Amino acid sequence: MTGSASASGQYAIGGELQVTRLGFGTMQLAGNAVWGEPADRDEALRTLRRLPELGVDFIDTADAYGPFITEDLIHEALYPYDGIVVATKVGHLRWAEDDPIPWPAVGRPEYLRSAARMCLRRLGGDAIDLLQLHRVDTKVPMEEQFGALKELQDEGVVRHLGLSNVTVDHIKAASEVFNVATVQNIYNVERRDQEVFDHCEREGIAYVPWFPLNDGNLAKPDGVTAAVAAAHDATPAQVALAWLLQQSPSMLPIPGTSTVAHLEENVAAADLTLTDAELAQLDAEGGPPET
Known about the structure:
Elements (H helix, E strand, L loop, with lengths): L9 E4 L3 E4 L3 E2 L15 H10 L7 E3 L8 H10 L6 E6 L18 H15 L4 E6 L8 H13 L3 E7 L3 H8 L4 E5 L9 H10 L2 E2 L18 H7 L3 H10 L14 H8 L8 H11 L5
Parallel strand pairs: 3-4, 4-5, 5-6, 6-7, 7-8, 8-9
Antiparallel strand pairs: 1-2
C-alpha cells in the first residue's frame, strides 16, 4: 500500500499556512540542468497531480526553474490548488543551459517586485502563499531587497515571506524588516549549515532543506544511510528523509522527482520511524556538523 505524507505531521508556516511537513520540490521537473521543458511533460504533470492524492500539500518552486517552466506546470496540473500551499522564489536569473554563470543573483527592488508579480500571474490566485528571496544579491544593499519583499506583502501580492541560501546575519537583518516565516538552505544527514538550522530552531522559523538527499548521494546503496535502510527494509533515500523529519517539528523536507514512482517512494518515508540508536549512528556516519 502506498503511504501518505500526512504521517509526517503538520506545521503552520507563519503561524497560519497549515501544511503537511513532507512536501515536494519542483527543481527536477524542468529539463536538463534545470533548463527548458521536462524530458517527459506528461509524466511531470502526472507527478504533480499525484501529490494531493498522497497527502502532499506543500510545493516549492522558483521562477528560475526552467526558467518559468515549473510554475507553469504547477498551474496547469493543480490550479486552483484547493488547499495546496505553493511557495516560490525570486532573485535569480537564468541565461542559458550552458552559461558559465547560470544563476546570477539579482536583487534590485524594481526587479524583485516585477518578478513576484509575474510569479503570481503564472501561478494564479489572489496572492502568493509564500515568497522566498532565492539569494541575497551582494551588489544591492540588503535592506533594499528586504524592503521590496515587505512592500509586496503590504500590498497583498504575497502572504508570507522567507529566505533561501542565507547566513544567520542575513536572517537577523531580514527579521528587522519582516517576519521570516521560512529559511531554505542546504541540510541533510551530513549536517551542513548546522548554525543556520540551530538559529531557525531557536527563533521558531520553519527550515526547508534543499538537497535533502545530497543530490542523490544519500540514496546510493553504499551510502551512509544504507545499513539503517536494510534494517527497516527501506531505501536509503527514505531513511535520509525520515532522519530529517525527526530532527525538528519545524523541518519541512521537499524531496523532488519527475516520476510518480519515485514520488511514491519518497512519500513512504513519512511512515518510517528511526530509533535513537539509529539517529545517533547516522549522526556519527554523516560527520560532524558544519557550522
